[in-house]
Amino acid sequence: MRIAQVAPLYERVPPQSYGGTERVVSYLTEELVRQGHDVTLFASGDSLTAARLVPCCDRALRLGGRCVDPIARHVYQIERVLSLADEFDVIHWHTDYLHFPLSRRLGVPHVTTLHGRLDLPDLPDLYAEFDDMPVVSISDAQRSPLPLARWAGTVYHGLPESLYELREADGGYLAFLGRISPEKRPDRAIEIARRVGLPLKIAAKVDKADREYYETTIRPLMDHPLVEFIGEIGDADKQDFLGNALALLFPIDWPEPFGMVMIEAMACGTPVVAFRCGSVPEVIDDGVTGFIVDDLAGACRAVEHAGRIDRRRVRSVFEQRFSARRMALDYVAIYERLVSEASELRLSVSEPENPFSQVSRPESLVNIA
User: Fold this and answer.
1) Contact between residue 89 and residue 76 where contact means Cβ atoms under 8 Å apart
2) What sections of the protein cross the membrane (predicted)?
3) Could you list the residue range(s) of the whole structural domain that residue 27 is in?
4) CB atoms within 10 A of CB 167
5) Quick check: pTM over 0.85?
6) pLDDT tens digits, one per residue of 323-334
């Protein structure tokens, strides 16, 4: 198939460090190319890909340092996609809803993966208006605020199986990986580590929006001998960081749409201790790949049992459920269905109505052999 992948411009594809959506776009793009598809990636000019790259800005916006209005760059990106739309069998958007008014009128099959939270007050009216826009969820839980959207399917994220490898022995510490933000609850992670008496390593970025939260709430908690703040890390560092951990702590307090870090840990064989929010019950097999907990006491008990988890089985479940190959095959099935539906619709519109289609045959003709 001829497939366009449209990535956000905030991070390069793949990201240099933090960046969940762009990372998924990279894994999907490279796997589609590997499977023999003709893929074009619309992304920042510093992106690295085996696909054809159409640059929509010189450098990723977050680290590029020169962007004042990111919407302007994304509008420019939409125009680049539209100017080449006839070259594709399907266009796969990863940029939320900005393109909806134009995609509705484009006449080319398309689908949008929604990567973020959907429990926002402004979204129901938007998706009620654009209920013809096919969208993909990254977990079933993510859909719940927008049941009337045109859901084309749920596709769980996937990683290349070779990206991380199994580590059967752990280094006796707990890991927290992601963002320092109120919904990610690093304060819970610190409290769990203090209660169980185990070292906690925190690898996380601090966005500008969360700087005050970090300085006033989290930084004072890090003044403890068990807590080590590493900062933001990329793929090259995650193997050791996650693979050597006794367990990954995922103490979230929000409707997490997916949670890439959970499957990154699983790829290393590392069990996950996660709070029961959002997608967690869909991603973690309780007692198999980790533990799903409801409070701090439950999290501490889970950490105490983490060493009993079979790390080989954790890795095996990852390979079965969360590989990039599986993700790409799931998306191709959706692409093919949307292309088929569009083709059937064009035929039904273009074919003249048969004036005799509603005319009953005379009874004398019905039984003629």
Assistant:
1) no
2) none
3) 2-158
4) 18
5) yes
6) 999 999 999 999
